[in-house]
């Protein structure tokens, strides 16, 4: 959004009455500093235009943090959580707020930090701040700017990057600190260490800002921080997103959750139509998964449309996925034949451990694989070797096309993406078939609906159980086979779904 358009927004008319003249003056100093000295660093028309805060930023972030003063004229807010949907410019705003504090609220040898899950992530915010300083003649003349630090010559104040571990932040006494992307932090160590180190600076208006989008589940450091800060008399939470009861398919909900004027309903519709629903809700509606535990990976409405009759061709190659267990569990075998029109035709078998011994009958699984390879044009049998090392070795010696495939993130993350896309586009045919064998169609449906999302920050997601006691073996076996089938089609130029 251009600065020219942004200036038309201003403050909401009633808010200044809440904060008083002194508070409004301090907030106005922040706004003017951003508009006159800082620039947008995004692409397109906004690149290097003045960074004039827009109304939702003024009303919900700058005024509550900087204009709310106590009787001594000090900022009441010491700890703030700012949570915005993806593309909400929270990183750019975070960089701007640190620079505004650093240049306007003079601290001799002040300490200003940005910390994230790792140094690389922290550098994203710092590099924006660094570019803003270098772009402004007044700021750059007053500073020494280095790769990982900015130092004001007159005061000795330093803004620098810290790694995202507790040891690195111990002993730091920040005047202002930003913790970025808090949803990926595994514990409260960094937050606690930095907060503890700032105790001596609370009286001089130290400020700890946490930036984040919603997390993958309703637990963990971010989830716990929200009520804690709301109870804290010096805490402030601005959570911009959809409520639990809001319909994620309603375009009005989308726009209400995204007050940023640069995000349009057509852009949100594209994200809604192309992303997994759980991902759209989390990143674009900024909402934690509503269900307890992991977010559900697949929609019943989509899978229901995949329960059509599979159509097999004896001359088309098949891929077989095997997800096995040893004791008191289930094992699954899924045969996947990808037709030339891109549909995946399935047959599924599920084996249960003996009720008496608790042992899995691997000989029965081995015989099934022999039969499948004898009756079908099987290109690969993909087996997780963890429980099937002996069986895989025996079958390979008999000439079966065995492929040992450990269920590592490197394979299972793109396999989960691929399976989600196939189901979303209704390119699965998994209904009950009269063809001999493959009696596990119902079990496959149960497994698909039991699948949750295990978020892997920075890498993607993979399948997990929604609840510990549920089974997803057939879904995992399908994910293995379906990705192999897509990779094979991709090698021949026929794939149009994620092949990787």
Write the layout of secondary structure elements.
Layout: H1 3-6, H2 15-37, H3 55-66, E1 79-83, H4 90-104, E2 111-115, H5 119-135, H6 137-141, E3 143-145, E4 149-152, E5 158-162, H7 166-169, E6 176-179, H8 189-197, E7 207-212, H9 221-231, E8 235-239, H10 251-257, H11 265-274, H12 277-284, H13 300-304, E9 318-323, E10 330-338, E11 344-352, H14 362-375, E12 378-383, H15 385-397, E13 402-404, H16 409-424, E14 428-429, H17 441-449, E15 451-456, E16 460-465, H18 473-491
Parallel strand pairs: 1-7, 1-8, 2-5, 2-6, 6-7, 9-12, 11-14, 12-13
Antiparallel strand pairs: 3-4, 4-5, 9-10, 10-11, 15-16
Helix pairs in contact: 2-3, 2-4, 4-5, 14-15, 16-18
3D structure, described in words:
- This protein has 2 domains: 3-240, P-loop containing nucleotide triphosphate hydrolases (Rossmann fold); 300-491, Nucleotidyltransferase, domain 5.
- It is 40% helix and 17% strand.
- The protein contains 18 helices and 16 strands.
- Helix 14 (362-375) packs across helix 15 (385-397) and helix 16 crosses helix 18.
Count of helical regions = 18
Dominant shape = elongated
The fraction of residues assigned to DSSP E strands is 15-25%
What spatial order of strands do you see in the largest sheet? 3-4-5-2-6-7-1-8
The end-to-end distance, rounded to whole angstroms, is 36 Å
Structural category: alpha/beta
Instruction: Note poorly predicted spans.
Output: 1-8, 493-500
> What is the helix content?
40-55%
